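Here is one chain, start to finish.
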Amino acid sequence: MRERGAREFGRGHYPFIVLLHICFFASLLLETGIKGYPLITGWQLAVAVLLLVQMLRYWVIFSLGRYWNTRILVIPGSARIRKGPYKHFRHPNYVIVVLELLLIPLIFKAWLTLVWVNIANSVVLYFRIKQEERALALLE
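Its structure:
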């Protein structure tokens, strides 16, 4: 996308997103390892919901097509995507991320991880969505 003149927004917060996800998995492994990897009662239902959430992620990726990436890149003047989940939600991928960060620790009874990662993710998403809104303004 950069070779087509894409502008990047939110470059400064991107390392925090990467760090958050690395710390999430490290915390999950540490907390569940200490506890002996317990699963919640009804974990099968939670895993089924998690699989549905992953299907939603692929819907997001396929809807964005060649524009999908993990950074906020927009080509000024190009049309905003308004199909698939983007017909109903402005930021559907963040709904998916929130659901993942709730479900995965829940499945393993990793309560500390569930709390801290969702608080941290809320802060990161606050800044991320502000930057994404700035970027989307170029397309509207």
